Automatic annotation (TrEMBL):
NCBIfam families documented for this protein: trpS
EC top class, as a word: ligase
GO MF, one annotated term: tryptophan-tRNA ligase activity
Principal place of residence: cytoplasm
Name of the protein in its database record: Tryptophan--tRNA ligase
Binding locations of L-tryptophan: D136
Sequence similarity: Belongs to the class-I aminoacyl-tRNA synthetase family.
Gene Ontology biological-process annotations: tryptophanyl-tRNA aminoacylation
Species assigned in the record: Pelagerythrobacter marensis
Cellular compartment(s): Cytoplasm
Function comment: Catalyzes the attachment of tryptophan to tRNA(Trp).
Amino acid sequence: MRIVSGIQPTGNLHLGNYLGAIRNWVRMQDELEEGAECLFFLADLHAISMPHEPAALHRATLEMVAALVACGIDPDRSILFNQAQVPAHAELQWLLNGTARMGWLNRMTQFKDKSGKNREGASAALFTYPVLQAADVLLYQTTHVPVGEDQKQHLELARDIAQKFNNDFASEEAPVFTLPDPITPPEAARIMSLREGSKKMSKSDPSDMARINLTDDSETIVKKIKKAKTDPEPLPSDSNGLVGRPEALNLVSIYGALSGETVDAVLARFGGQGFGVFKPALADLMVESIAPITARFRDLLEDREALDAILAKGAARARERAVPTLDAAYRALGLVRG
Ligand code: TYM
């Protein structure tokens, strides 16, 4: 079993990243079987697909390492690194560009969302972004990829690319790539914006009130929950009553993801109550869950040398593991390398 996943270092880690992905990374790391391995990386090469400020990317990358360690990723047990220090990711992407089809990339909803109306002005990197993501996982013979719901389409594409490459350039007995399976935590697959229940919670939302950052202090969390959009109805007694109430569903789902309960179990307790009761309970639970992470994050940020050392060690281990598959891909394509 090999587990691989990534996160873009574009600003603050938020509750959606934590509940949708990172908490699952930590769980998988902590429950790992003998002989299995986890690789977690900062997708800094992906981050340059959108307009960015170099100094901010540099800072965000180090902050994200600190945040991941604060959330429970142990750099001794897991391999924690950034793509930019493992050139095999970019190399394999180029090789896979020969296999990925334009039609496949044209169907990716993330490209449509992020390029918006200005498709002609989008970077080529934004278009080929999913091919780099495929390289990230295929490079390591990955079996499992813990991600939120929004990344599932990219993982399907990685499987399509692997399958076509294996068919075109390898034999059935000796495939070059393993087909990876996405793993999505059901109770927190999609955490939505606090301002609009139909939009996912996102780092790029211009309103900071729309998300809970893992660096928010208690006061800010209480304020954001208090201001979160809701409707005037009290909470229903089971999940059927949340149909057509996306904001209420989101807040109850967040509560359940934090407390480890199903939506129905949360409603069994809070059904019939208004948000005047539910919101303070949610804010308390959230503060309690996030405060230890925030404290550790602040300490880690003080030690720049330690953060550099974590990334250097992780990259060396990742580079080692990338060699066999990258070599096999070059060979399969007939490329001469001495
Ligand atoms: P990114 O950086 O946008 O998000 C990191 C992880 O957090 C999950 N996530 C969410 N889950 C639930 N609700 C939300 N509102 C929410 N927002 C984000 C994402 O699903 C993701 O698991 N392309 C990827 C990074 C990447 C990657 C990879 C992931 C690059 N290569 C290879 C897996 C494997 C991305 O931009 O995630």
